[in-house]
Amino acid sequence: MKIAVCVSHVPDTAARIKVGSDEKAIDPAGITYVINPYDEYAVEEALKSKEMLGDDSEVIVISLGGDKNKETIKKALAMGADSGVLLKDENPRDSIGVAKALAEEIKAVGAELVFFGKQSVDYDNSIIGQLTSELLNYSCISVVVKFNVNDSKITAEREIEGGREVVQTELPAIITCQKGLNEPRYASLKGIMAAKKKSIEEKPAADIEQMSEVIKMHMPQPKQPGRIIGEDSAAVQELVKLLREEAKVI
Amino acid sequence: MAAKILAILEQRDGFLKRSAFETVQQASQLAKDLSLEAQAVVVGENIENLIEISNYGIAKIIHLKNSDLSSYSSSGYTSAISDYAKETDADYLIFSNTALGKDLAPRVSIRLSAGCIIDCIKLDCSSGELVATRPVYAGKALVDVKLNSDKKVITIRPNVFKAVPLNTPLNPEIEVKEISSPDLKTKVIEVKKSEGKLDVAEADIIVSGGRGMRGPENFHLVEELANVLGAAVGASRAVVDAGWRPHGEQVGQTGKTVSPTLYIACGISGAIQHLAGMSSSKYIVAINKDKDAPIFNVADYGIAGDLFEVLPALTEEIKKIK
User: I want to staple A89 with a disulfide (CB 3.0 to 4.6 A). Which of A146, A192, A205, B14 is the partner?
Assistant: First the structure.
């Protein structure tokens, strides 16, 4: 079976974000880009599924973006994925635009099981997997913390407020992965060497009309620093008084 | 015929969630601002508090009913809602950005060829069209976005738009529509609830612990304070990665981004990823030994002291007034 995993290349979570001069996107200067943290769970689950399903399975990594996304594809190849596809587009596009291009490629490679991170930590959209599933008429389970596939039946647990839902569905399916699903493997030296020989196919991403438009990117109002009331439990009475009488929150 | 907005409401175990009323109120506000006709739509079997919707500004309530849809089925709910939206030619759909809303809204948007903006924290119609503001990079920056599509789907972050009941509720008009043979290809077969726990994403007050708690065995201090406040327990990434707390409690960039009324950070130094996830809280209290910790830069009130003394004292003090 063909298994696809869709990955994005995002600023490291430790990055300080500045708005770029066009006020539409961030200023990339000085920012380190990494594989989206949730996508590491997706790659791991794709590899585990391949191991479970047997030798004739194949893991294909797909990423949409600029040339720099190849670093993230290589990271997934070094972890053990078989081949990569870069859908080239240097310009930002909205989530439906991303989903449409990915859906086309998933169809082209014929993947029946597709893993995504549950959201990318740049635009925090958390909907690309669900959008793609509808475009392909695939089943989809989002925010998955436990996954099992047996024949064409899938049982997964997804995180909801205050608990988990146990969900059943069938292949073909898209799964979006949440922290806790697995422990992503490190790329071994052997894996890194092997990745150099694996192919990354490059092709232009399908051109799609955008439905949403960023008018302006801006920084949140900085929070005014407050005050340190005291240093020990003597400050506690004062704190409770302030929370009751000034903030009126308790 | 006026253009329509549908507020898609979430029920669990037959009760509408608090976030549902926030959605009703925002739909009602958009209806006023953009001259739309508002309807509230709920999918499920028996729903106990349907009538409460009218307290928040929408009189027309549509109940899409089927016993197989009492618990969530992404395929079934998507079809039921999309079919109703097509039937009524609805222009706007608004959901709450909960686990269910985030799962459902994008699917419905594809069925309707609608654009989709999720996790909005501000809706502005002053230019005559809807401009939504949403956080990106976990709140390190914000974007103002508009949709150029004819049909529009948005989700609003829970807890940001507070629901306040009207002085005089509207006269509710409930229409029940039976859904025949729903698509149950993807179906929830069981819900495993975390025992009596409030989720950080929905809580009005959060008490969070970090590495300063020194070990999982000390988190009872955080839990006790959370209990007296009726608060949810949160955690920093460091303690989740160390296995002290479940990841469902993690606040910050690879956890949950939260905006409660009160956020109490205990033994959390304030890494940039954590600050991004909680800085939009209305009031922040920090309790930390190190008075130079970055968390004090965003805290309204701070106690620079030993949390093993301060936390029990604070719990006792709050017990007195409750």
Answer: A205
pTM metric for this prediction: 0.94
Nearest CA in chain A to B232: A162
Q: What is the DSSP string of B155-175?
A: EE-TTTS-----SS----EEE
Spell out which residues of chain A touch residue B254, defining contact as CB-CB under 8 Å: 13, 37-38, 121, 179
In angstroms, the CA B96 to CA B103 distance is 11
What is the ipTM score, two decimals?
0.94
CA-to-CA distance for A93 and A87, rounded, in angstroms?
13
Which of B143, B192, B285 best probes binding to A when mutated, by most A CB atoms within 10 angstroms? B143
Contacts of B304 in chain A (CB under 8 A): 228, 230-231
Each residue's pLDDT tens digit, B144-164: 999 999 999 999 999 899 899
Chain B from 203 to 262: CB within 8 A of any A CB: 205, 229, 246-248, 250, 253-255, 257, 261-262
Does the pLDDT at position B207 exceed 90? yes
Q: Is B74 at the interface with chain A, CB within 8 A? A: yes
A178-217 CB burial, b ≥16 within 10 A, e <16? bbbbbebeebeeebeeebeebebeeeebeebebbbebbeb
Within 8 A of B228 by CB-CB distance, chain A residues are none
Burial of B99 per CB tally in 10 Å (0-12, 13-18, 19+): buried
